[in-house]
Amino acid sequence: MIAPGERIEPRVLRLYGKVVSGSFTALKMRLNATAVQSPSDPVFYRGQSVTIFARFAAGAAPETLTVDGKRGSDPTSWTLSVAPAADDSTAIPVLWARERIRDLEEGTGTVGSRQTRAGGQREKSEILDLCRKYGLISRDTSYVAVEQRPDEEKTTGSVVLRKVPVQLTAGWHGTVSGLPRLSLAQNKLARASRPMDVQHLVVPGNRPSFLYCPPAAPRNERPMPELSRKKGALTGKSDTLLTLLAQQRPEGGFSLDKKTIKALGLQEDELKQIAGRIETRVEADGPVLLATAIVLWLLENKFGQRRDEWQMVVQKSVTWLEKQIEITGAAIGQVKLADWVAGYLGKRRINV
Would residue 208 count as lying in a domain? Predict the structure, then answer.
């Protein structure tokens, strides 16, 4: 979800990083015939964690467990030690049951086509048994509250139908078919928690409905709710990280324009002089080598807390720079280019 006023680029960069990092699929425990794994087909990405549960018969849990999977098309496996729980009050059985119910509801916990599994009575029966045993709800179960009253407090009169107005959450109008929707765009987000004005409407067909009628706001006033976001996340604010990433070249490496150089607190003429001092064995693009080394140093040292937004995006530039240095032997005064840049920037005050 992208909140109002939030920039979309960080979310897209994180999604891109997740996709290009590669996923692990077909994760299966090597279990005996009586054990049941849930979730049955988990997927996770590099840098993330995954939780897989398995139910064993009493006393049948192994001391070690092997998990097989695939990263892309390459098979891989992990061998893990199994430690007994400290006591019997652990929530692990409930967590296993919840995942097992989800597998059965989504059709991934049984064998056969999805169409066949969807209406299977055996799966439904297992869901009901698990819900009753572990106190869980599902698409086929829910909690029912039963109030017990003494005989002297029981109601003896006739049942009377009364319409009781209730508060509605902003955006959930409670409209019926055929009624126009009421726009809440003019309301501040904070009004969603206030008691709402409710009025009784009579619509065609004599169907009553309770609708929230928001107070009108001046047309020239469109207040934006104040959202707590990390630096640079709101539209209109300069985000140095996104500015740097936007200057990555398609083939790898970075270029720095005049505006970015000035914003960082660097001098364009000085950088040109430094680029001219780069020594190489073969012809190379000094300004691009220098700009790439500068940007990668800034990412590591100034934007480490936002690594998930840029790490996978700039991987090709990291590889490009390493290859260029290997081929050209780029250095300044017999100091490797990356090391020289680290010392140069470490002594300067960078605006980020």
Answer: yes
